[in-house]
Amino acid sequence: MKKQTIPYGRQTINQDDIEAVLEVLKSPLLTQGPVVREFEEKLAAYCGAQYAVAVINGTAALYLANKVLNVSAQDKVITTPNTFLATANSIALNGGRPIFADIHRETFNIDPDKIETLLLGDDAYKGIIPVHFGGLPAAMEEIAALAQKYNLFVIEDACHALGGSWKDSNGELQKIGNCAYSDLTVFSFHPVKHITTGEGGAITTNNKELYERLIQFRSHGITSDPQKMSENHGRWYYEMQYLSFNFRITDIQCALGLSQLKKSGQWIKRRNEIINIYDSIFDSHPSITPQYHPKDSNLSYHLYIVQCEARDELYSFLHNHNIAVQVHYVPVHLQPYYNATYGYKKGAYQSLS
Ligand SMILES: *Cc1c(COP(=O)(O)O)cnc(C)c1O
């Protein structure tokens, strides 16, 4: 008998998820119906933000976040080189220039000191996109302070961190996605992430104007709001005021999202139990250094990441034992596209390979 593989990631779909999806399939509207709106409202409340906009995937959400903050040709935006490609690509896809600031050795998150070094050398930056790597929040207070000082936007890439919360230096609990220290926060609902809609993503914000721009850019740059139109020819009239794509998510997917969101809390608890078990084993292991995990936190982890000298051997050993681990990540600046386009070289960021 073949030994069962422990997959890299696997969604949990129960009968209630299936029934929620079936209900929409039997309803008149498969897309642009009421379920998208309901999911957005529940998600915004869950994150403690005023607004949420759901879209086709996390990559589109990141792209739109840059778009509504007016990233365009040659604008420089700072992000981490240790992330999934989509974070940096979202800047480049808007014509901007991703500039990397190195990560902190213990948190594996973007280092605010390295951000400031960049900012001191050049005043032409437009924004910062920190990633809450593995679910561990980036240094948001420091990053927000830099953004204020240098007049930059902040987009949180929280694709690893849905449902987590952390205490700021005033002792106030901050939910990931509440945008207390950012303009926009982005999530992904790919099946390996905390909850899934098949493919899906969302942006949360407290800024009404950004929210309205997100809605408009989600659907071809069209508005049918009489307040926003240059002319009004009647109830049938609509205007395309910007150039954009169709990034709309379906009601079918949002029904799954709503059903999954209800279970997010119990899944986060289970993830924390597992993290604690791993920590108790690896914290004193001679050749394995896990990512820093604060004790007694309410974080929502996506990955358990360790550093290890014998990475290739460990990877092969685990795969030979049917445990499907991954390397997180191939540093973005070392990808052939980034090398060819921006000339980034190996060794540019000391904390990464
Ligand atoms: C998953 C992920 C994305 C992209 O989300 P998709 O839904 O797969 O498009 C972006 N950033 C990070 C950090 C991610 O982990």
Give an overview in words:
This protein is 35% helix and 14% strand. The protein is of the alpha/beta class and 353 residues long. The strands form 4 sheets. It has a 7-stranded mixed beta sheet with strand order 1-9-8-5-4-2-3, with helices on both faces. Helix 1 packs antiparallel against helix 8 and helix 5 packs parallel to helix 6. The chain is globular. Bound molecules: pyridoxal-5'-phosphate. The site of pyridoxal-5'-phosphate has 15 residues, from helix 3 and helix 4.
Helix content: 25-40%
Tell me, rounded to a whole number, the average pLDDT. Answer: 95
Biggest pleated-sheet summary: 7 strands, mixed
Radius of gyration, whole Å: 21 Å
Could you give the order of strands across the largest sheet?
A: 1-9-8-5-4-2-3
Question: pLDDT under 50 segments (min length 5)?
Answer: none
Q: Give the distinct bound molecules.
A: pyridoxal-5'-phosphate
Descriptors for this entry?
353 residues; binds pyridoxal-5'-phosphate; 11 helices; alpha/beta; two-stranded antiparallel sheet
Quick summary of this structure?
The protein has helices at residues 15-25, 34-47, 58-68, 86-92, 112-121, 140-150, 208-218, 251-261, 264-282, 311-320, 336-342; strands at residues 51-55, 76-79, 97-100, 125-129, 153-157, 165-167, 173-175, 184-188, 201-205, 222-223, 239-240, 288-290, 306-308.
